[in-house]
Amino acid sequence: MEYRRLGKSDIKISEVSLGCWVTGGTYWGGADDNESITAIQTMVDLGVNFIDTAEVYGNGHSEKVVGKALEGRRDKVYLSSKVWRSNMRYNDVKKACEGSLKRLKTDCIDVYFIHYPSNEGIPIEETMGAMLELQQEGKIRVIGLSNFSKEEMEEAMKVGRFDVIQPCYSLLWRFIEKDIIPYCIDNEVGIVNYSPLAQGILTGKFTPNTRFKEGDGRARAPLFQPGRFEKCLEVAEELKPIAEKYGKTQGQVAINWTTSQPGITSAIVGARNAVQARENVGAGGWRLEAEDLKNMEQISRRVTDDLPEFETFFTTRLKNK
User: Fold this and answer.
1) Is 57 a catalytic residue?
2) Fewer beta carbons below 10 Å: N end or C end of the chain?
3) Catalytic one of 27, 57, 116, 183
């Protein structure tokens, strides 16, 4: 496993990290707490040292599970959590952090993200002011931003330093390459990207006949819509021979592609159980050859060159269109 410095901080994190969104228990059919704990512990024992969660994941449940899983292992990992957009006021940020610290059973959160920009007109100066104070108090080490545009990042940086961002990025979702990745490289800001498997499409486990259970948000996500979903599946299928060349799975190859891109510090992947955890770890510790990276670039563009700009990865509502 390769370890990379997070922005200008003194933290070095594994190129593959664990995201605990599904651990919240209310998404994509939920997750068993005991299996989640085993998955977390398995990834840590195999060298993953960055665990990402958020107060909104299962209304705090994910943080509680993570806290329990890391008992006796806390010194082996860097913990990351996020303050939700309904808590952007100064006092609310401070209160939210205290809640996360308690649920995670720790006295310091290594990386604390603003989960989304405020949708209530709360100035970034107020939110960042609280984050900077938490940093001064030693309750958080590194400040991060999640799902911010380049312009929003620039406004935040005027208030205070942040060292990492968390955007959506994969072979099938490459919007950040336009201006966000260049900004982060120029300003030495780390990038830990989520959904490197495009919500499971790039694992190769889906077919054109796949139907999701009621409540599964993927049924509404842009890449899963008729006409587009089939093209995405073609990309996943074309990863097979590349995966076979390295003795890897399609998913491992897709994750490795993201961690091979300029500016990317680590790819965040989820795991419901120990089997998925071990497979995720297998995406690190090796590198795709230049020829295969070029081939994957060409395959990817069959989808991304015709993909409209969406508000987020989780909705079909178009942005500015």
Assistant:
1) yes
2) C
3) 57
